[in-house]
Amino acid sequence: MVIPAAGRGVRLGPGAPKALRALNGTPMLVHAVRAMAASRAVSLVVVVAPADGVPEVKHLLDAHALPERTDYRVVAGGDTRQESVRLGLDAVPGDVDVVLVHDAARPLVPVETVDAVVEAVRDGAVAVVPAMPVTDTVKEVEPAGGPGGPEPVVATPVRARLRAVQTPQGFDRATLVDAHATIALAGEGATDDAGMVERLGAPVVVVPGHEEAFKVTRPLDLVLAEAVLARRRANDGF
Ligand SMILES: Nc1ccn([C@@H]2O[C@H](COP(=O)(O)OP(=O)(O)OP(=O)(O)O)[C@@H](O)[C@H]2O)c(=O)n1
Ligand SMILES: C[C@](O)(CO)[C@H](O)COP(=O)(O)O
């Protein structure tokens, strides 16, 4: 599996690259690696590190206890998530049939969600996405040129048909490799891998996601993540 962890975390504010920032004293990336390696289906984790941070990330993984039945590799990432995932995929051995892609920025995904995605791919789906129903009403707008300007509403999609997409996303390896080989790197890149598979015309299915698989994007998400960890510790204590 591939964990893209090369982002800067601009929306989180100034500091170290997001994946290296601490949650309860442990780097977010280590939480994410442990979350994925908790699944018995995961035998290899390829971490995609910031291009200038490969030795640091290798050291970090060596310094933390991780399941021993899993292999870990670290490769350098690119300027966009799309590029980083492609570089990670290049490091996955050719005999691996099922590939998961999981954001380091979703450190608290439960193992049940990982296993549900793997099972759906093993059952024959070529691309599987965990997702949650949307709780806000969503408007499509004509984006304003600058910040804060009024934005004309173009449409209000039917909320019951919308899903907020999470990771890990699971793929038949050949399909994901094909998507990354076919869809050119441009601008900010594709925001998720399943979207690239859709663009190939291949079917993508959604399975239930989990509220604890949220993405740490803005400062308030750090508060939520630490609260989830505190709740887990309290539950483990009883
Ligand atoms: N060039 C990039 C950009 C993103 N990512 C990874 O993709 C995941 C999802 O990206 P996001 O949460 O948007 O992270 P950032 O790009 O770091 O966030 P921001 O846009 O706020 O800078 C993260 O695990 C991030 O490390 C990556 O590997 N390489
Ligand atoms: C892949 C993803 O986590 C699915 O929700 C998301 O699209 C990543 O987007 P970002 O722009 O990198 O935050």
UniProtKB/TrEMBL annotation:
Cross-referenced SUPFAM superfamilies: Nucleotide-diphospho-sugar transferases
Keywords in alphabetical order: Isoprene biosynthesis, Nucleotidyltransferase, Transferase
One Pfam family hit: IspD
Signal peptide: none
BP-aspect Gene Ontology terms: isopentenyl diphosphate biosynthetic process, methylerythritol 4-phosphate pathway
Keyword check for Nucleotidyltransferase: yes
Site residues, Positions MEP for the nucleophilic attack: R159, K215
Superkingdom of this protein's organism: Bacteria
GO molecular function annotation: 2-C-methyl-D-erythritol 4-phosphate cytidylyltransferase activity
Residues annotated as site: Transition state stabilizer: R11, K18
EC number annotated for this UniProt entry: 2.7.7.60
Catalytic activity: 2-C-methyl-D-erythritol 4-phosphate + CTP + H(+) = 4-CDP-2-C-methyl-D-erythritol + diphosphate
Pathway(s) this gene product operates in, as recorded in its UniProt entry: Isoprenoid biosynthesis; isopentenyl diphosphate biosynthesis via DXP pathway; isopentenyl diphosphate from 1-deoxy-D-xylulose 5-phosphate: step 2/6
UniProt-listed InterPro entries: IspD, IspD/TarI, IspD/TarI_cytidylyltransf_bact, ISPD_synthase_CS, Nucleotide-diphossugar_trans
Function comment: Catalyzes the formation of 4-diphosphocytidyl-2-C-methyl-D-erythritol from CTP and 2-C-methyl-D-erythritol 4-phosphate (MEP).
Family named by the database record: Belongs to the IspD/TarI cytidylyltransferase family. IspD subfamily.
Protein name: 2-C-methyl-D-erythritol 4-phosphate cytidylyltransferase
Organism whose genome encodes this protein: Streptomyces termitum
